[in-house]
Design goal:
two-stranded antiparallel sheet; mainly alpha; two-stranded antiparallel ribbon
Length: 297
């Protein structure tokens, strides 16, 4: 009985294959352990490489979106502000809008013939430009500080607007273009005619705007835009979300607003109309006429 138990449980009791010689069943413990550890390490390395290879395109796409959606617009905006300050360095009407340190960066206007400073006949009690008596002892802001100060001033000024305007309109009216904006008028425009300039909604453009938005939304909700599958649907939702983000936040704005605040969202809605038309054309392609070489090459 004891021999039978040993034969059942002993590691070296494996029976040889019929007609062949027996091979040792046991292996060296160190070799087995080392082989197992090496195999595990190799598997972990392969898994890490596969993960890195899978994440690399995602990281590249995230960096590209960061550049195109954030860094590039910020660079264009800040660059335009810097050009504005460099190309328009002279004092003039409306300077009181700027904070006093920003006015120190403005140059006084001078007569091109005599070089005399062009300004008010009486001394000013407030700082109006560099070299002004009221500005002595103060120093102009650096370019980054001036840009930051002007943006803060613009935000506070817009938040403080309380008056309404005859040609203002609410955010809910903009998709319909029901209220134009009056820009300019003159009684001596051309041959003593009375001239005015308005911004008015073009019925064709605004009609395409509403139709395209509604069509694309219905296509996406009904998952009817299967041509091009996920990528096209993702582009469609991106356009609709961009339109909503550029338009709906104005519902919470209490200050006076005008039709031109809708222009960025209008651009996205026109792109949405084009994408909806593309979906429809791909889903229902036109049939070539009989006895024709279509498409033309």
């Amino acid at each position: 009985m004891l021999e039978r138990s040993d034969a059942a449980h002993g590691p070296s009791a494996a029976a040889p294959p019929p007609g062949g010689r027996a091979f040792p069943a046991a292996v060296d413990g160190g070799a087995a352990g080392g082989g197992g550890a090496g195999g595990t390490g190799g598997g972990d390395g392969d898994a890490r490489r596969r993960t890195s290879a899978a994440l690399a395109p995602v990281a590249m796409e995230a960096m590209a979106r960061l550049v195109w959606l954030l860094l590039l617009p910020a660079t264009i905006y800040l660059g335009s502000m810097a050009l504005h300050l460099k190309l328009l360095p002279f004092a003039g009407r409306g300077d009181n809008f700027h904070p006093k340190p920003c006015r120190l960066g403005l140059a006084p206007r001078r007569d091109p013939d005599t070089g005399a400073v062009l300004g008010p006949a009486t001394p000013q009690a407030d700082c109006i430009a560099a070299g002004c008596a009221a500005c002595r002892g103060q120093f102009p802001l650096s370019l980054p500080a001036a840009i930051s100060s002007l943006n803060a001033r613009m935000l506070s000024a817009n938040a403080g607007i309380k008056k309404q305007h005859t040609f203002s309109s609410g955010w809910a009216h903009w998709p319909f273009g029901s209220q134009p904006v009056f820009y300019w008028s003159s009684t001596k425009c051309y041959a003593d005619h009375y001239c005015r300039i308005y911004m008015a909604a073009n019925p064709v453009v605004w009609g395409v705007d509403l139709t395209g938005l509604a069509a694309l939304l219905l296509l996406l909700l009904g998952r009817l835009c299967s041509c091009g599958a996920r990528r096209r649907r993702r582009h469609g939702w991106l356009l609709l979300c961009g339109h909503a983000l550029g338009w709906l936040p104005f519902a919470a704005v209490k200050r006076v607003a005008f039709l031109y605040h809708y222009i960025p969202s209008l651009h996205l809605s026109l792109l949405a109309a084009g994408l909806a038309l593309d979906h429809l054309l791909l889903a229902h392609p036109a049939r070539p006429p009989r006895n024709s070489t279509w498409p033309l090459r």
